[in-house]
């Protein structure tokens, strides 16, 4: 048996992004089930996994139902102590835990006023005083973490950890709403937007699921501030260079074109997520 992960909409579910990153970034195998935010309530869709009522939810190999992102993180860390979920240094680990806990319970103005929407970015979201206060606190604890942990790379406490998982959707909000932060915070946001795992999640969010208008705001939009995706397009006809899908090894049936070359995937979703951001997918890039 393996873990089973229940997730919400790729484009809009910030907590699902955290749950997915806990598996993706630390190379933990799982099966996944997606909950449709445009359909019946999340709780109704999770009825067979009671008492789960929210996403993400993790079902352990033994059948335990874990329905909270921080609980999922701690349980995975305890089961996979060598995976690197928390820093090995005691001071850095304590700092990372504090960061993760504060994100889990705080920043309500930012979360309420600026819901995650990976399909849009805005020129000026005119943040409220409460959002500005949240941003100031976020910058304070990010700066403290980097100084305390003497972090030399892009992440808060040294190597990528649960603390960075918890703040990935915050980075998406700062980028998506063009919120005012200093240079150090902006660099941390850019590190998330450039991270291949984050790019894969966003690519899936661009092509799967309905556009949900209640997540949109009445602001002027702008291009997404992350890395520009390499040009590619879906096509209906052609002969693919690869006989099998790079993700599933099933026969290539759905075609795409990049750099004048034709490749195939096993279904429309595999093709479309690749077209959305080809360089985010190592298995595909290995074909080029």
UniProtKB/TrEMBL annotation:
Biological process per Gene Ontology, one example term: L-phenylalanine catabolic process
UniProt entry tagged with the keyword Transferase: yes
Gene Ontology terms, MF aspect: glutathione transferase activity; maleylacetoacetate isomerase activity
Transmembrane segments: none
Keywords attached to this entry: Transferase
Span of domain GST N-terminal: 3-84
InterPro entries listed in its UniProt record: Glutathione-S-Trfase_C_sf, Glutathione_S-Trfase_N, Thioredoxin-like_sf
Pfam families: GST_N_2 (PF13409)
Superkingdom, taxonomy of origin: Bacteria
Name of the protein this chain belongs to: Glutathione S-transferase
Source organism: Shimia haliotis
